[in-house]
């Protein structure tokens, strides 16, 4: 009996490893289920030439803006010397972090919660002595701030935008006037697709949808 | 028929040969301790990142499945995390090994799942796999408190006679070895599928990233991308071959393991990874078998015989350790473990309550939100500044020799007869750009001009300029322009052709 259980475990375990390898090689179903994260070994899946940080701020009714991450009680740096909120690339947890800070702190009534992405080219991460070795021009670092998401104080999305790099890439393609004209020809005015109709319906629940998927689809009128 | 039986018996031998689980014991002793370096710091923020009283971010949310696991109250989360800390320690020392390992596996996986932002990462996934395998193995049979409590006398120590040791099927260790091979193979696949990896652009970008621990060595290597190209190929070849070479006890096994040790050590220096290399080193211990341990002990015995004070001290220490546990201790051990777990969890909850991480029980009241400087807030919320032209370029280099699309001999002085290659290293993403290279003399007169299109996916644009006698020796300036604007300048010097010692 123990031998049978051992064989079953071995077969199941090796089967899961093979599933992960084949899924990764054939690019099939890699994001189909969170369990795939445990069998897909994509430790080096791409790094951009821009560094990014993710800020959470609150706008009070007085017009004053407040930091929401890290919380006022202290910070937590999981992997180096930057705070936890800066590791949320997709923005899935930023709203919840913001609401947690508001829940456990004293503050005036809050009007909006805003997530801001700060980007800069990674060449400015070079220390000064290495910069001097590589570049003849003086170092002139700059940060590009990009408002990513805006929510009401109770978490209703008001605005959602893709990441700054996605926006740059999109702009690099859509600066083409011919392409812009072609895109307008196929743009729908009414919510025709079943998914769009569902999201455009009042009362549609978004709580199980990752915030990065949230778009201003409420503005699309239903075809009914 | 004979070949088929032979194949079956080979597979059976591979998975079910009996051995003393030394390798598993070493992994059991080391990996939980390594994981404690990330578990303990997160214990202090359990309420914030692992409980419903905080802001967990479950792994399943990013996959569109919502919250799949329950999120407990802060108190329960703290109690469970305290239990995880205790179970990791008891697993490492081998006390109630199987329950400890199962608790470690379940709670470690649960907490990692709860915080996809700052806890879930690939080394925690590797640890999860290892904990699973260890929990179904007999990793606590040797070198453990359980082994001492089992009243196995006269363990193998230098100077003491060898006795029958417990043996078990080898398949858990084989699964660990196959896991390591699968990890490296999958990692190689990822690298092969990643655009810009073999051209060193991805490695360079990672070495300049500041999201891990400090890595000044990586920043230095980022200046020499040609070296990174070599590293990229060596790593991928090694990862692909690992699973196929590592099995035979030949010259290649220690070589492959040594490359692995070096590779992970370099990731610490160049990428700022600390726990990941340590995790991998722990998994490498799965390649330690009985033969290795016997050789090690034989070498230790030989060393002790040569060292006079060790010759007497070690047997005394060994006999003390291998002395039988009192019967009462053996019978009370499981109850003691359960009692300690309850007390430990209670103590953890009490201490966390005392720490009051949110500061809600402070005499002065809850924390106030910190206001942002109005100028900073205005800068953050203003319309985004258009990307400057200079930020579409990483650097400009000049040289004469290319290796893998990268300049190798970066220099700024040239002689007649040489070909100067000017390389514009670009930041992706950028739009399709029209790049112009101008060569100006010391009086700012235009000497030469070249231009080309840099498509949006390109990391580099090259200009070649033949330096002939038509270009007077002297100081020049290389100017890079795009969209009519000057972006970068680089000084270069041109010398006459070097004279031959035989004249003319």
Describe the 3D structure.
The complex is a heterodimer of chains A (224) and B (504). Chain A is α+β, with helices and mostly antiparallel strands. Chain A folds into two domains: 2-38; 50-171, no CATH class. Chain A is built from six helices and five strands; from the N terminus they run αββαβαββααα. Chain A has a five-stranded antiparallel sheet, covered by helices on one side. In chain A, strand 4 and strand 5 form a beta hairpin. With 504 residues, chain B is of the alpha+beta class. Chain B folds into three domains: 16-169 and 322-368, no CATH class; 177-288, no CATH class; 389-495, Macroglobulin (MG2) domain (Immunoglobulin-like), CATH 2.60.40.1930. In chain B, 51% of the residues lie in helices and 14% in strands. Chain B has 18 helices and 13 strands. Chain B has helices at residues 2-16, 22-43, 46-50, 59-62, 74-93, 97-114, 122-135, 145-149, 171-193, 201-207, 216-221, 225-245, 252-271, 275-284, 290-306, 308-322, 327-355, 374-381, and strands spanning 18-19, 168-169, 370-371, 393-399, 402-403, 406-407, 413-415, 419-426, 433-440, 446-454, 460-466, 474-482, 485-495. In chain B, the strands form four sheets. A five-stranded mixed sheet of chain B has the order 7-13-12-9-10, with no helix packed on it. In chain B, helix 5 (74-93) runs antiparallel to helix 17 (327-355) and helix 12 packs antiparallel against helix 13. The interface between A and B is large, with 101 and 107 residues.
Chart the SSEs and their pairings.
The complex is a heterodimer of chains A (about 220) and B (about 500).
Chain A: H1 2-26, E1 50-60, E2 65-67, H2 94-103, E3 110-121, H3 128-134, E4 144-152, E5 157-160, H4 164-174, H5 177-185, H6 194-200
Antiparallel strand pairs in A: 1-2, 1-3, 3-4, 4-5
Chain B: H1 2-16, E1 18-19, H2 22-43, H3 46-50, H4 59-62, H5 74-93, H6 97-114, H7 122-135, H8 145-149, E2 168-169, H9 171-193, H10 201-207, H11 216-221, H12 225-245, H13 252-271, H14 275-284, H15 290-306, H16 308-322, H17 327-355, E3 370-371, H18 374-381, E4 393-399, E5 402-403, E6 406-407, E7 413-415, E8 419-426, E9 433-440, E10 446-454, E11 460-466, E12 474-482, E13 485-495
């Amino acid at each position: 009996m123990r031998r049978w259980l051992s064989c079953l475990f071995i077969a199941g375990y090796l089967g899961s490893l093979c599933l992960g390898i084949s899924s990764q090689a054939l690019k099939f179903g890699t994001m189909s289920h969170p369990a795939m994260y445990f069998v897909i070994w994509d430790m080096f899946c791409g790094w951009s030439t821009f560094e990014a940080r993710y800020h959470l701020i609150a706008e009070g009714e007085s017009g004053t803006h407040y930091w929401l991450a890290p919380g006022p009680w202290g910070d937590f740096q999981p992997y180096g010397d930057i705070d936890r909120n800066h590791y949320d690339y997709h923005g899935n947890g930023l709203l919840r972090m913001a609401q947690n800070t508001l829940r456990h702190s004293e503050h005036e009534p809050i009007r909006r919660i805003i997530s801001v992405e700060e980007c800069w080219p990674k060449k400015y991460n070079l220390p000064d002595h290495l910069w001097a070795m590589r570049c003849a021009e003086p170092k002139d670092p700059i940060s590009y701030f990009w408002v990513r998401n805006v929510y009401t104080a109770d978490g209703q999305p008001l605005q959602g935008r893709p990441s700054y790099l996605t926006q740059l890439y999109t702009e690099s393609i859509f600066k083409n006037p011919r392409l812009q004209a072609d895109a307008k020809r196929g743009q729908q005015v009414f919510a025709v697709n079943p998914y769009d109709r569902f999201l455009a319906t009042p009362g549609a629940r978004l709580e199980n949808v990752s915030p990065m998927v949230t778009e201003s689809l409420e503005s699309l009128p239903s075809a009914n | 028929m004979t070949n088929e039986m032979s194949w079956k018996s080979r597979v059976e031998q591979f998975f079910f040969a009996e051995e003393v689980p030394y390798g598993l014991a070493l992994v059991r002793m080391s990996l939980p301790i390594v994981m404690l370096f990330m578990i303990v710091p997160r214990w202090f923020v359990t309420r914030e990142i692992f409980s419903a009283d905080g802001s967990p971010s479950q792994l399943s949310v990013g996959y569109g499945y919502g919250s799949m696991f329950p999120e407990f109250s802060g108190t329960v989360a703290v109690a469970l995390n305290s239990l995880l800390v205790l179970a990791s320690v008891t697993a490492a020392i081998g006390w109630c090994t199987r329950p400890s390992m199962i608790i470690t596996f379940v709670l470690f996986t649960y907490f990692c799942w709860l915080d996809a932002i700052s806890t879930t990462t690939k080394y925690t996934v590797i640890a999860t796999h290892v904990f699973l395998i260890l929990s179904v193995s007999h990793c606590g049979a040797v070198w453990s408190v359980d082994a001492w409590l089992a009243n196995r006398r006269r363990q193998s120590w230098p100077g003491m006679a060898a006795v029958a040791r417990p043996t078990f099927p080898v398949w858990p260790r084989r699964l660990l070895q196959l896991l390591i091979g699968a990890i490296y193979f999958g990692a190689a696949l990822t690298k092969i599928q990643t655009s810009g990896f073999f051209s060193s652009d991805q490695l360079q970008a990672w070495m300049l990233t500041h999201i891990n621990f400090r890595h000044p060595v990586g920043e230095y290597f980022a200046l020499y991308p040609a070296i990174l190209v070599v590293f990229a190929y060596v790593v991928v070849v090694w990862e692909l071959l690992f699973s196929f070479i590592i099995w035979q006890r030949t010259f290649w096994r220690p070589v492959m393991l040594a490359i692995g040790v070096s590779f992970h050590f370099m990731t610490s220096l160049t990428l700022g990874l600390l726990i990941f290399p340590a995790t991998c080193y722990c998994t490498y211990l799965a390649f330690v078998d009985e033969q290795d341990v016997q050789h090690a002990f034989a070498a230790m015995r030989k060393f002790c015989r040569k060292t006079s004070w060790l010759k007497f001290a070690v047997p005394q220490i060994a006999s003390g350790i291998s002395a039988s546990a009192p019967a009462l201790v053996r019978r009370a051990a499981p109850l003691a473990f359960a009692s300690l777990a309850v007390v430990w969890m209670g103590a953890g909850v009490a201490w966390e309550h005392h720490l009051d991480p949110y500061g809600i029980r402070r005499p002065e009241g809850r924390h106030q939100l910190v206001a942002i400087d109005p100028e900073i807030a205005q800068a953050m919320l203003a319309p985004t500044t258009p990307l400057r032209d200079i930020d579409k370029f990483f650097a400009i280099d000049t040289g004469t020799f290319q290796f893998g699309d990268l300049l190798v001999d970066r220099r700024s002085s040239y002689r007649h007869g040489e070909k100067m290659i000017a390389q514009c290293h670009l930041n992706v993403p950028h739009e399709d750009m029209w790049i112009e290279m101008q060569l100006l003399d010391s009086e700012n007169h235009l000497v030469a001009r070249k231009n080309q299109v840099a498509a949006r996916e390109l990391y580099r644009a090259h200009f070649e300029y033949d330096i002939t006698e038509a270009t007077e020796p002297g100081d020049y300036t290389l100017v890079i322009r795009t969209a009519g604007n000057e972006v970068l300048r680089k000084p270069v010097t041109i010398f006459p052709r070097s004279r031959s010692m035989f004249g003319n």
